[in-house]
Specification:
This protein is an all-alpha fold. The protein contains 24 helices and no strands. Mean pLDDT is 86; it is low at 1-40.
């Protein structure tokens, strides 16, 4: 899932597993917050003379006084910019000369085609190299700056381009730059600007802000947007909603997106929608329906030549089987997942190894569990990784769990207790990983019982039971 998934589907691939129980909508939920946000639902169709002058003045960072100087009063220029007054021809000519623009907007069909093709290439990107080549070919084309609408459209599309190519610093700078020009955007441009803001917040793991922004985009979406574009927005809302524990919302929009992608025949997105719906059903406790969607994802995904998509699907199926204690069924899917994981996805590889180790351990096959541990250690050693070295939180969590399992397999009870109490339990609580929390608290309770620490054992086992209740959504 080379590009688009990096934006929407999986920032860190193993994070796609169940983050917590079904959400309970409240007054702070994104679905409530959207109702109180001021939004301009209807925007301009074309730029009038005053808007054009103001747009180019702001582009050049000229003040009203500086622009009006020697031509007309500042007060009159402000009236022209706000549409309260039409400029005289001589005034208009002088203002356009100062701003270095033509008297009227030019017809620019080639520029429109250039930006449209660029936009289409970003909607379902498959090849990062080709997109970068495309951008290099057109980015300095003069016709992309020959009229205001084409220029605005291209600048907005650059936000998504920078997100897709991983240049988040440039994406942030472009968002800040374009925020200055919101008043000049037409309905579709304003919609896309909000949607790409959602993409940016999503990639930063700010799922609440991403969802809120996507919902704004949906509310202001023009009727003219394509089915593919609408499907992309619905999918974005669906995937963000699961992270925000708004699972009913996640199901609704993922299902809407799936129907569109089935009509448009976009196999990659069809697989991703099935995955998100499967995860949503897990939250609802519908294991049978969840597995049906996982199997649909597997069937379609195996026909696509996208390794990271195959990894994601196999990983999630394996993890789902593990959650329901079907360890023998989990193992082949996890092994299959590891065939497709790229070398650079170290956190996800370690996470898959952790689930494999636990599956073998629960089946009483300590030999296989140790063999899997050794393979995981080789990955860690090859990357020269330590607990205090990575900045990626997903890697930290996966690595800490791997170390804890190593202690558990080696009967290093003190070390196992220490890493659980000092590192791992807090990590699971912060990420709402209730199944993992319940799993390890259960083993901590057993450890305390063996050591004769019966009160602590009872407390740990009670907390383990509470964590599993959260997974099953039992009050």
């Amino acid at each position: 899932m080379d590009l688009e998934a990096v934006i929407i589907v999986l920032n860190n691939l193993s994070d796609f597993r169940l983050p917590g129980p079904p959400g309970r909508a409240g007054e702070n939920s994104p679905t409530w917050m959207i109702e109180v946000l001021p939004m301009q639902l209807e925007r301009r169709v074309e730029m009038d003379t005053g808007m054009r002058l103001k747009y180019h003045r702001l582009k050049k960072r000229f003040s009203l006084e500086e622009t009006a100087s020697g031509i007309l009063s500042t007060k009159d220029l402000k009236k022209i910019e706000t549409g309260q007054k039409e400029p005289a021809l001589k005034e208009l000519e002088a203002l356009c000369k100062k701003l270095e623009i033509p008297l009227a907007a030019k017809d620019n069909p080639i520029g429109k085609v250039l930006v449209k093709n660029f936009k289409n290439s970003l909607l379902h990107p498959q090849n990062k190299g080709k997109i970068m080549e495309h951008y290099a070919d057109i980015s300095s084309h003069p016709l992309l700056r020959a009229d205001e609408d084409v220029e605005l459209e291209f600048d907005i599309q650059q936000i998504r381009y920078f997100i897709i190519t991983g240049d988040l610093e440039c994406a942030e700078d472009k968002i800040k730059e374009m925020d200055r020009f919101k008043e000049f955007m037409n309905q579709e441009q304003y919609y896309l600007f909000n949607k790409y803001n959602g993409n940016y917040n999503y990639i930063l793991n700010d799922y609440e802000q991403a969802l809120k922004t996507y919902l704004i985009a949906e509310k202001i979406a023009p009727k003219s947007i394509s089915a593919a574009e609408l499907g992309d927005l619905y999918y974005s809302i669906g995937i963000s909603s699961n992270y925000c524990r708004e699972h009913e919302l996640a199901f609704k929009y993922s299902d809407l997106a799936l129907k569109i992608y089935q009509q448009e025949f976009v196999p990659k997105r069809i697989v991703e929608c099935h995955l998100n719906i499967a995860i949503t059903h897990e939250h609802f406790g519908n294991h049978k329906l969840s597995m049906e969607h996982y199997k649909n994802a597997l069937t379609i995904g195996n026909k696509l030549d996208i390794d990271i998509l195959k990894f994601t699907t196999e990983y999630n199926v394996g993890y789902s089987y593990f959650i329901y204690q079907q360890y023998e069924q989990a193992i082949p899917h996890l092994h299959s997942a590891l065939k497709y994981i790229p070398d650079e996805y170290v956190a996800d590889s370690i996470s898959a190894h952790c689930i494999l180790i636990k599956s073998y351990f629960e089946l009483g096959n300590k030999v296989k569990a140790h063999e899997t541990k050794v393979i995981g250690l080789e990955i860690v050693k090859a990357k020269e990784l330590r607990l205090d070295s990575p900045s990626n939180s997903a890697f930290m969590d996966a690595y800490m769990e791997f170390v804890a399992l190593t202690y558990l397999l080696n009967d290093q009870e003190e070390e196992f207790e220490a890493i659980l109490l000092n590192k791992l339990i807090k990590s699971f609580e912060n990420s709402d990983s209730f199944h993992d929390l319940g799993y390890y608290l259960g083993y901590l309770g057993k450890l305390y019982f063996r050591q004769g620490r019966y009160k602590e054992s009872a407390e740990a086992l009670e907390k383990s039971k509470d964590a599993y209740k959260e997974v099953l959504n039992i009050d």
